């Protein structure tokens, strides 16, 4: 009898972690199953993938790990990589009205001059208030704007939060759900040390090590990871998928797990399931553009700086080497300039040179001494589906892991909610997905 196949679309954290937990379940229960992971890119990792310069290897899009990211830390540990996590305090700042402000601890909040003193207290109270709330579902019925207005006042929203939401969600800023804000406030609080400073982790040598280790583990366990091999389409009648068509050929389908982004999965599914395809398209996304500069001197004082000026073309300056150990980056200075943009934004088509030229006046406005002589290397990375728009009532738009088709399952970052699309939450979702698939495949 043929061994049942499980085909997984995408070798980001969702796809590879689902494959890993499925393979472990198969081993433990001595059930037969052959896992195939299909990845269109030549390298695994998706949004958390890495690239190399002559000096270091680093994520294409900035990544850090929170202390409470347990599922990811457990996975790293099981793969023998726990010793590669480096924990360091990371200072956060923000540019308001073209002035830099340190915003790394509660004391910094009390010194935050753009707000009157009473509003600084209200800003701090917001985080404390969020931690008293246990039922996040009720928060999902109101916007973050409404919640902040109620708990901390209009001034706190206008001066601090609205510019941040605008940076991340653009014209959708006022529609962001209060449940999403709640999880941000609660989760970030959990990463602070006794002095109130945030301690964050990174994987020395980049997260690519995690993905390579997962690929190696799966292959050593008798499964398959097909890199550089896109899935072209899925076929079948209304009730189940019958085949998966890949660049390597078409294969009869037993179980298929969609771990690419939701709109990509909707495009792959057959027209016979048009209603379900529309369901998957309910969630909209913003794209992200990151310019990664290797500099011969430091740019800012902080690891993370939010840029809140409405007309700035980037919203985050993330200076990796103001947090990471200098030796891990050959003592170079690595800076990401990040922007969340709509699909039609011209920055999605620019190469690194064009993007640097486009950003140069804005960089020099914030750092007047900056010249192109600082720049030793530049790279740019674009992701079409980088951030789901977490609107009010988002919980009602999330597709279930088990789809209406008997043999199709979905595990993607857009299903992580109200918590943010942290890798660790992706690992936890993958673990849950593997359990559901095992039950569906082998019960009865
Ligand atoms: C700017 C930015 C910063 C972030 N910062 C952090 C952070 O600090 N900490 C943190 O924990 N998380 C962070 N994240 C979130 C984290 O990167 C994501 O949650 C996670 O990587 C999503 O993984 P995924 O596997 O669900 O999706 P992806 O990583 O998007 O993986 C999907 C994969 O599917 C592949 N694919 C698509 N279509 C096909 C097809 N037809 N055939 C085959 N393969 C296909 C894609 O190539 C891709 O590799 C950040 C994300 C962004 C965008």
TrEMBL record:
Residue span(s) of domain Amine oxidase: 13-414
Molecular function via GO: oxidoreductase activity
Pfam hit, one: Amino_oxidase
Domain of life per record: Bacteria
SUPFAM superfamilies: FAD/NAD(P)-binding domain
Gene3D superfamilies documented for this protein: FAD/NAD(P)-binding domain, protoporphyrinogen ix oxidase, domain 3, Protoporphyrinogen oxidase, mitochondrial, domain 2
Name of the protein this chain belongs to: Probable protoporphyrinogen oxidase protein
Source organism (scientific name): Vecturithrix granuli
């Amino acid at each position: 009898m043929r061994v049942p196949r499980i085909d997984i679309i995408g070798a980001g954290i969702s796809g590879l972690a689902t494959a890993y937990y499925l393979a472990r379940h198969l081993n433990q229960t001595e059930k037969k199953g052959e896992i195939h992971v299909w990845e269109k890119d030549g390298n695994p990792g998706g949004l958390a993938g890495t690239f190399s310069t002559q000096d270091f290897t680093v994520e294409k899009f900035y990544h850090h790990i929170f202390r409470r990211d347990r599922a990811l830390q457990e996975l790293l540990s099981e793969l023998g990589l726990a010793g590669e996590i480096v924990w360091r305090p990371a200072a956060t700042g923000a540019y308001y009205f073209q002035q830099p402000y340190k915003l790394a601890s509660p004391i910094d909040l009390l010194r935050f001059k753009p707000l009157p003193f009473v509003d600084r207290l209200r800003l701090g109270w917001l985080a404390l208030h969020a931690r008293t709330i246990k039922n996040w579902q009720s928060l999902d019925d109101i916007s973050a704007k409404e919640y902040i207005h109620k708990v901390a006042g209009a001034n706190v929203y206008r001066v601090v939060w609205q510019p941040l939401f605008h940076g991340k969600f653009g014209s959708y800023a006022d529609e962001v759900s209060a449940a999403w804000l709640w999880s941000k406030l609660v989760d970030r609080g959990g990463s602070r040390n006794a002095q109130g400073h945030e301690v964050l982790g990174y994987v020395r040598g980049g997260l690519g090590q995690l993905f390579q280790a997962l690929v190696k583990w799966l292959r050593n366990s008798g499964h398959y990871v097909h890199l550089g091999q896109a899935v072209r389409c899925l076929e079948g009648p209304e009730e189940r998928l019958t085949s998966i068509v890949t660049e390597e050929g078409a294969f009869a389908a037993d179980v298929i797990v969609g771990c690419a982004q939701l709109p990509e999965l909707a495009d792959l599914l057959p027209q016979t399931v048009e209603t379900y395809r529309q369901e998957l398209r309910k969630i909209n996304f913003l794209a992200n553009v990151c310019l990664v500069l290797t500099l011969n001197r430091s740019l800012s004082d902080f690891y993370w700086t939010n840029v809140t000026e409405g007309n700035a073309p980037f919203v985050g300056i993330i200076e990796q080497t103001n947090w990471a150990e200098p030796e891990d980056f050959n003592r170079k200075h690595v800076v990401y300039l990040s922007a969340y943009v709509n699909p039609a934004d011209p920055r999605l088509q620019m190469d690194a040179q064009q993007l640097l030229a486009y950003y140069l006046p804005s960089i020099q406005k914030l750092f007047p001494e900056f010249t192109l002589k600082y720049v030793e290397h530049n790279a740019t990375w674009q992701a079409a589906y980088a951030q789901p728009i977490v609107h009010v009532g988002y919980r009602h738009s999330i597709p279930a892991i088990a789809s209406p088709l008997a043999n199709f399952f979905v595990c993607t970052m857009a299903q992580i909610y109200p918590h943010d699309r942290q890798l660790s939450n992706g690992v936890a979702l993958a673990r849950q997905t593997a359990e559901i698939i095992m039950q569906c495949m082998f019960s009865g």
